[in-house]
Amino acid sequence: MAATIEEKSSAIKATSSTTDSPTSPEKLAERNITISMHQLGVWKLKVAHSKSPFYMNYYRDFSQSYPLFVRLTKDIYNVSPRLFTFYIFSQIWGSIEEALMMHLSGILLRSVENGLKTGSPDVWGIGSAVVARLACSLFAAFMSWQGELALAQLRTRVTTNFNMYLMSARLRVDLPTSKDKSSESEATPDNAWYSLNDIISFFSSILSALSQIALIFHLSRSTGGPLFAILCILRPVVSLLGTRTIWDKAAYGYVDNKDYTRMKSLTEFAGGSYRQDIISGNLGEWIMSEFKKAYDKLTDVTVEHPYSLYDRTETPYRDMMHKAIGDLPMVYCALITIMRPSHFSLTSLAILQQSSTWLGYSLGTVFQSSETFRQAVTNVRKLYEAGNVVNKMSDGAIPYPAPLSLSEKGDAGEMKTEGEKGMGFELKEVTFTYPGSQSTENALSSISLTIKPGQLVVIVGSNGSGKSTLIRILSRLYDPTSGQVLIDNRPSSSYLVGDLHRATAILSQESSIYPLTLAENIGIGYPEKSNDIEMIKKAAEEGGASEFIKKLEAGLETRLDPMQETFSINLYNDKEHPLSKELDKLAKPIDVSGGEKQKVVAARTFMRFYSGKVKFVAVDEPSSALDAEAELHLFQRLIAARQGKTMVFVTHRFGHLTKFADVILCMKGGRLEEMGSHAELMAKQGEYANLYNIQANAFSAGGEAAETPTA
Length: 711
Ligand SMILES: Nc1ncnc2c1ncn2[C@@H]1O[C@H](COP(=O)(O)OP(=O)(O)OP(=O)(O)O)[C@@H](O)[C@H]1O
Description:
The structure is a single chain. The chain is α/β, with parallel strands linked by helices. Among the domains are: 66-257 and 301-387, ABC transporter transmembrane region fold; 425-513 and 614-699, P-loop containing nucleotide triphosphate hydrolases (Rossmann fold, 3-Layer(aba) Sandwich). The protein contains 23 helices and 14 strands. Helix 3 packs parallel to helix 6 (189-220) and helix 22 (678-684) packs across helix 23 (687-699). The longest helix is centred in the first third of the chain and has 49 residues, at 123-171. Adenosine-5'-triphosphate (ATP) binds next to helix 14. Adenosine-5'-triphosphate binds at residues 434, 437, 439, 443, 461, 463-469.
């Protein structure tokens, strides 16, 4: 079936008179564009055309991206000046290589041609041309080999350097900022390399085109003169400028044909997902007949993608004109041969033709790579923007713990610090909503409370009542939306955030095992001692993890995820192949139970305690996967280590902790519903007593064990 293309091209008159419409005349004028609509087969295509000439767009793009390009070039140069210089040299060589080789071939062939004409070959001329051409070929082969080696090295260095840059940019982002989608960067370390490559390729193709033009003018001196050169250049230029292409325009398309859409729906319907319904409803025949009807109505409308349809012309005249222009150099040659036969060189003509074809190719690459150039510049911009993310939480200037004033020096005159007994907190009317939260209610509302240094605090409350959020506010992972948090009587924002976090140990369900060895997973709690294996073993013991670690073949050196990358070719079906067996032996991820993971995380927290810097311990339900004995063990160890620390526990299980607590905070719907000791809260018979009794009742039929209020 011959595909026919129905194409209606018309500049769209803006349909809406309001400036709200994205295609209102005001908006289009602002961007200096017009929009045309095309029906290409089953597709409707809307294309934006810039009113400025294409070279102005190039100029604008280039001038805007120039500073970025310079910065990227400098950064990559600094990674390895030697490799980068070689890379640029190899690119320049690659751009002019073809023209140079053609030039040398031309010299050789012309010497041969002259020899044939005169009957006495120019031995010196032919010999030197052969040697030059051979040397050029050998140099090209060497450059290509050396280039590949050097480029692999440069690429690895550049990618690793930009990986480090992006890692450090991401590592310094605070929690509220990291949750904000708009601050998330899509940049990858590969962006730097590929962007540089794309930008350099763009300039290389320009250089390649210029070298071809230079060669054409050079050759035309012996055959045809400047007019002949212009005719040779005209063909690729006209062909390029005359080709309608969508690649340099902004456009979108959608399928606008009911019959085609119906055929697609019916094909989807006939697919596997609806098999049972089709069989039970006996719908097979109906589907086929409906498909046939839609197909008949579609007639000859093509379903080809608009990318290829847009480039096609409505009439053959443009193609015919391009072909005719392409033959002009030949016509001109024929005239020269008739009028001035001595000026004619067959060799130059052949080389000129070849050069003209190559020029067309180079110019085509320049135009095609203009879009890649823009994309590359956008990627570079994203890359550098990733390093400019501004944290939402402000950093303070006071170290934590803050040194006591000189008048409060210790007995021996040494500089003492605040927070000796632990971190003290005061919350005044704290309200908090998570950034970007869709909830109509605050996660915390008007919380006012005081936690004295060294107290053991237990937070209880139903799901979603704000317990974990309160812990995050106390740990300064977030700042309140309104209200104030004082730490040791100073606003929390006045301290250096890094110091506050160093003085805080958080043990929560969300804490995870890192992609490191188990020893490092524990040791990282106290980075300065992460190689102290005795300390790590002690922490593992306190966290309850040593027993299960001993059972692992590699013990503390086990990596749960070995991060082993493998690949194989043609081994899938041959499990007995010696290579398959070797591949199977390579390290694979190991899974351990949820409780065992929690024990490793707990061990990390104990390791953190050994630094002596921890003044606040936030324990947010870390025991969900632990059995009763392990949970009791963990809490006992944590409480035994409370000297000099304020401890806040979030728990749903009242048994072990609430009776030890100095203060219990009972949360409900983001508010602090009740606060006091176990006895006080039981006496109130409010929310806390209610939650407590529900649990107590679960252990005794009929609720006999539920406590009655005590004064
Ligand atoms: N990252 C978040 N983004 C948006 N909303 C959140 C986020 N984390 C929690 N919330 C919301 O904040 C409120 C308080 O949640 P929070 O996790 O503090 O409760 P919780 O008392 O710790 O609950 P649970 O007992 O289930 O752990 C809930 O309404 C919750 O949906």
